[in-house]
């Protein structure tokens, strides 16, 4: 049976939309890029041949078009204003007082939304079709970026639903979500292309492309936060307007909440501030708006900002400071890391005086020298890093700039250093003869996720190595109470306590022991996968690289490191010493694919209260479940904590079972 062009175009459109949704929304490509491109080309050809077949929401409308020579200027019919800022709870109290005085009513309802750190845009729909998109510009005139905005995958090209106004201007923020940003930069790095400093710059750079085909390849998303000019009726409250936008297909914030009174606004701010680092996108504060439109009108504007809204800002995550010098630290694998010594600055809520410079290539890429003014970024628990050099620095002309020279010898033990082919890292070749490496190995071995030796902290490890009491991790189990009691600042009671925790750590688990060995690239998750696969340490140590790459999570590089570790005689000796000294674990009985959750696939999302997401995933895998990072039709259950966003929504759409932490803990208690 032959298909008509109408049927073929409709089938291609449905297929392409499904593939695009899997690719952009679920990070789960269904077909290779080439298949997508081929189907798209066919649809383009059909729409060219039969122009009547083209629909405004066809995937062909999102691929970008021929480059522009420049962006046209666009006059905003209604100026795009800015918001006043608040930096403290006192500033919020002042804002609330101004509002209540003008309204003559103390019980004000506020709509709270995260302030996305992206690029503000205005988008006009006429009779439901997207006709114009512009940047904010100076608030009065922006640039016409319609071709670029049309490529944004979560933005409808036509609105659906009832009572769509004939003219609707929507305003909101374009951002690149964090995970997509990391992936995009990893791809750029692999292709030796320019990487972006942060998601905001990446979003701004992507929207500024004159060639919208480039924009189309960037993972931009849009979130609406208000309306501009509207011809037609809208509800009388801000939250209800956003709800209406959502019904027409426009994305709005899932975190929006309407509360009464300023104290609850403070609670909302604190709650989001705690979640800030685990949200799927960067935010730089919270916007609070008087919810009633009549009240907003009564309050009006002062200079260029509405009196009815305020943005309470979070502490900055990027600030500039001066690079005072560079130290070189040796890690447990001998990797020598340059660490910047900085003029102390307050960033991301703490005072920072050190930041990583990663490696010699990074120093070259940044073109940084001692004395320069640099931008330091500290987001969440991530180690502070230098992201750029401020142009024209050093600002103080009396400061001499000095090149950063990488040491030719290990700064700790004086051994030679070497750089493996294709590696950015320079390493000390001293092995355990290098005190710095030995100390780092012991710190890792004793850490909580490894052998969990409580009380064996950094200072004590330094003393034990410097005094020659510990020359390998096995020596920890040879320490005696009189030896410990003789150490500086170690009382008798502490020496007994430490001995007791060393004793306790002898009983461990196979995954923890594998992790504690400190094999390069073998983190907690890989250690667990290895334990579940091999069940016994000997089987792991005897495995060939071919067998190792058959384990989940293990690629050729990790397999190479495991083989290298297992075939080193010094490592073999340390392992047999540890076993002879009584380190032990129960036999592993649950292999991957066995256990009460065998055959199920789980996704963990949001912030859990009782454990990290990584720990929760480990528990699930230990019970035989598979874990995945994105929700798809294959997902059996989604475990959600506060802040679960698009993954939860996707699960709801697909009718997948969702459990919260309390339900899950109850399930664990039954199963474990
Ligand atoms: O820059 C902004 C970010 C978020 C906003 C905003 C917003 O609402 C959540 N709302 C307005 C009204 C303006 N700027 C002017």
Low-confidence stretches: none
In which order are the strands of the major sheet placed? 2-13-10-3-9
In total, the number of strands is 24
Radius of gyration: 29 Å
| Count of alpha/pi helices | 24
Shape by Cα distribution = globular
The CATH H-level superfamily of the largest domain is: DNA ligase/mRNA capping enzyme
> Remind me, CATH topology of the largest domain?
D-amino Acid Aminotransferase, Chain A, domain 1
Distance between the termini: 57 Å
Largest sheet: 5 strands, mixed
Report on this structure.
Helix content is 36%, strand content 20%. By secondary structure, it is an alpha+beta fold. It has six domains: 58 residues, Helix Hairpins (Orthogonal Bundle), CATH 1.10.287; 240 residues, DNA ligase/mRNA capping enzyme (D-amino Acid Aminotransferase, Chain A, domain 1), CATH 3.30.470; 114 residues, OB fold (Dihydrolipoamide Acetyltransferase, E2P), CATH 2.40.50; 75 residues, DNA polymerase, domain 1; 71 residues, 5' to 3' exonuclease, C-terminal subdomain (DNA polymerase, domain 1, Orthogonal Bundle), CATH 1.10.150.20; 71 residues, BRCT domain (Rossmann fold, 3-Layer(aba) Sandwich). The strands form seven sheets. A five-stranded mixed β-sheet has the order 2-13-10-3-9. It has a five-stranded antiparallel β-sheet with strand order 16-15-14-17-18. It has a four-stranded antiparallel β-sheet with strand order 5-4-7-8. Helix 12 packs across helix 13 and helix 16 crosses helix 17. The longest helix is centred in the first third of the chain and has 20 residues. 8-methoxy-2,3-dimethylquinoxalin-5-ol (I6G) binds next to strand 3 and strand 8.
């Amino acid at each position: 049976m032959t298909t008509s062009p109408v049927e073929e175009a409709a089938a291609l459109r449905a297929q392409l939309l499904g593939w695009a949704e899997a690719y952009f929304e679920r990070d789960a490509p269904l077909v290779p890029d080439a298949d997508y491109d081929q189907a798209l080309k066919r649809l383009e050809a059909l729409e060219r041949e039969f122009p009547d077949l083209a629909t405004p929401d066809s995937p062909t409308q999102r691929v970008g078009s021929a480059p522009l020579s420049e962006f046209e200027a666009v006059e905003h019919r209604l100026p795009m204003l800015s918001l006043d800022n608040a930096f403290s709870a006192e500033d919020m109290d002042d804002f609330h007082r101004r509002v209540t005085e003008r309204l003559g009513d103390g019980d004000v309802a506020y709509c709270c939304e995260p302030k996305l750190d992206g690029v503000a845009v205005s988008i006009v729909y006429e009779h439901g079709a997207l006709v114009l998109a512009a940047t904010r510009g100076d608030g009065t005139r922006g640039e016409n970026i319609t071709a670029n905005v049309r490529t944004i995958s979560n933005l409808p090209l036509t609105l659906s639903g009832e009572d769509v106004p004939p003219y609707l201007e929507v305003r909101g923020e374009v951002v690149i979500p964090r995970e997509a940003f990391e992936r995009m930069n990893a791809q750029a790095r692999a292709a030796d292309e320019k990487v972006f400093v942060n998601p905001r710059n990446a979003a701004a750079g992507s929207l500024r492309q004159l060639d919208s085909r480039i924009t189309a390849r960037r993972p931009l998303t849009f979130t609406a936060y208000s309306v501009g000019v509207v011809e037609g009726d809208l509800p009388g409250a801000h939250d209800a307007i956003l709800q209406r936008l959502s019904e027409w297909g426009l994305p709005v914030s899932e975190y929006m909440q309407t509360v009464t009174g300023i104290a609850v606004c403070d609670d909302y701010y604190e709650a989001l501030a705690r979640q800030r680092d685990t949200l799927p996108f960067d935010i730089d504060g919270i916007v609070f708006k008087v919810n009633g439109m009549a009240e907003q009108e009564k309050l009006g504007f002062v200079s260029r900002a509405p009196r009815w809204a305020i943005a309470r800002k979070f502490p900055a995550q990027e600030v500039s400071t001066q690079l005072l010098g560079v130290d070189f630290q040796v890690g447990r694998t001998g990797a020598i890391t340059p660490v910047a010594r900085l003029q102390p600055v307050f960033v991301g809520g703490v005072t920072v005086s050190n930041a990583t410079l990663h490696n010699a290539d990074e120093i070259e890429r940044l073109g940084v020298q001692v004395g320069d003014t640099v931008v330091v970024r500290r987001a969440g628990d991530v180690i502070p890093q230098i992201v750029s050099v401020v142009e024209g620095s050093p600002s103080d002309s009396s400061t001499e700039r000095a090149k950063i020279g990488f040491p030719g010898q290990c700064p700790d033990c004086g051994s030679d250093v070497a750089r493996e082919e294709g590696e950015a890292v320079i390493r000390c070749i001293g092995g355990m003869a290098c005190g710095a490496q030995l100390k780092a190995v012991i710190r890792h071995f004793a850490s909580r996720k490894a052998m969990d030796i409580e009380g064996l902290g950094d200072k004590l490890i330094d003393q034990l190595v410097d005094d020659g009491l510990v020359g390998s991790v096995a020596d920890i189990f040879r320490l005696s109470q009189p030896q410990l009691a003789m150490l500086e600042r170690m009382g008798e009671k502490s020496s007994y306590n430490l001995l007791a925790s060393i004793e306790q750590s002898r009983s461990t688990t196979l995954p923890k022991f594998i992790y504690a060995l400190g094999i390069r690239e073998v983190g907690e998750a890989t250690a667990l996968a290895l334990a579940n696969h091999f069940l016994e340490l000997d089987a792991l140590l005897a495995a060939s690289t071919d067998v190792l790459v058959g384990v989940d999570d293990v690629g050729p590089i990790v397999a190479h490191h495991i083989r290298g570790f297992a075939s080193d005689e010094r490592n073999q000796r340390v392992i047999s010493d540890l076993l002879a000294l009584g380190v032990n674990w129960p036999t592993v009985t649950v292999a991957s694919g066995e256990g009460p959750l065998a055959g199920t696939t789980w996704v963990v999302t949001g912030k859990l209260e009782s454990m990290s997401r990584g720990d929760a995933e480990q528990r699930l895998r230990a019970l035989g479940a598979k874990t995945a990072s994105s929700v798809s039709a294959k997902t059996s259950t989604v475990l959600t904590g506060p802040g679960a966003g698009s993954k939860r929504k996707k699960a709801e759409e697909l009718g997948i079972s969702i459990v919260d932490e309390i339900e899950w803990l109850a399930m664990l208690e039954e199963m474990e």
